[in-house]
From TrEMBL:
Pfam families cross-referenced by the UniProt entry: DinB_2 (PF12867), Pentapeptide (PF00805)
SUPFAM superfamilies: DinB/YfiT-like putative metalloenzymes, Pentapeptide repeat-like
InterPro entries per the UniProt record, alphabetical: 5peptide_repeat (IPR001646), DinB-like (IPR024775), DinB/YfiT-like (IPR034660)
Designated name of the protein: Pentapeptide repeat-containing protein
Organism from which the protein derives: Nonomuraea jiangxiensis
Length: 266
């Protein structure tokens, strides 16, 4: 097997090349041109397709999960259609993009209620199963660790200006670049109760911020330029909170999906 590591192949030409079964990790394919390529059976995660142009494509038996905006398929922007259908299936989803303080408080109350049910369901599983990932996704406990990381970053660091809001079990996303001083141990197996203890603290932190929101505060902007994550200048505080709501909503759906799969295996 040939390995290409830490090499600059920018501008390289591949023609009649067999890359079947090849693995690409942290590979930059920006502005590439592909013609008559076969992606059958491909598994792509953590990828960016911004400003991509795909023509003459066959999409059959394809599953896509991710952020979909301004995606035109055969002349139709499908993003609003997908959004409307998901809101029809899950009416509370529409509450996850609030624009006023009361809306944020309501959205957070919905999430806490829904997550309480998901955690109660997870507690009926052997703890070993909660450390088991499904289809290469995070385990249930890793999902909780990631949400703890999200709250610490967007609320603890950005909104409350805490210099180091992290806990040792916090878990960044898999494709994160890594930062000095931010924990990142994907393979750790902390007990569920320890992770939930941190989870309750982070939920209470977010709840306090939501409860104290005013129109003026919600319309303000925040800046954190020192090394770490998030790092942003003059960033809308509202978008910090939207990020938390989005992560909480989506990852609960992932967790419920994987618990359903695990339930059939136990």
């Amino acid at each position: 097997m040939t390995e290409f590591c830490q090499q600059n192949l920018a501008g390289a030409r591949f023609e009649r090349v067999n890359l079947r079964g090849a693995a690409f990790t942290r590979v930059y394919l920006n502005d590439t041109r592909m013609h008559a390529v076969d992606f059958t059976g491909a598994r792509i995660r953590g990828a960016l397709f911004n400003r991509s142009d795909l023509r003459g494509i066959e999409l059959v038996d394809v599953e896509i999960n991710g952020v979909i905006e301004n995606v035109v398929v055969n002349g139709v922007d499908i993003a609003p259609l997908i959004d409307a259908e998901l809101n029809r299936r899950m009416p509370e989803r529409a509450k996850m993009r609030p624009e006023d303080p009361d809306g944020f408080r309501e959205a957070w109350a919905v999430l806490e209620r829904l997550w309480a049910g998901t955690v109660a369901r997870a507690r009926t599983f052997p703890e070993e199963a909660l450390h088991r990932g499904v289809d290469e996704e995070w385990s249930f406990i890793q999902t909780l660790r990631h949400l703890n990381f999200v709250s610490a970053g967007w609320v603890g660091r950005m909104v409350l200006c805490e210099a180091a809001p992290w806990h040792r079990w916090d878990l960044p996303w898999d494709e994160a670049p890594g930062w000095d001083g931010i924990p990142w141990d994907r393979e750790a197996r902390p007990p569920l109760d320890e992770v939930l203890a941190v989870r309750r603290e982070r939920q209470a932190m977010v709840r306090r911020v939501m409860e104290s929101l005013t129109d003026e505060r919600l319309g303000s902007r925040v800046t954190r330029t020192e090394p770490g994550w998030p790092q942003a200048e003059n960033f809308p505080l509202k978008e910090c909170l939207h990020s938390v709501l989005h992560e909480e909503w989506e990852h609960r759906l992932f967790a419920e999906r994987d618990l359903h799969t695990l339930e059939k295996e136990i």
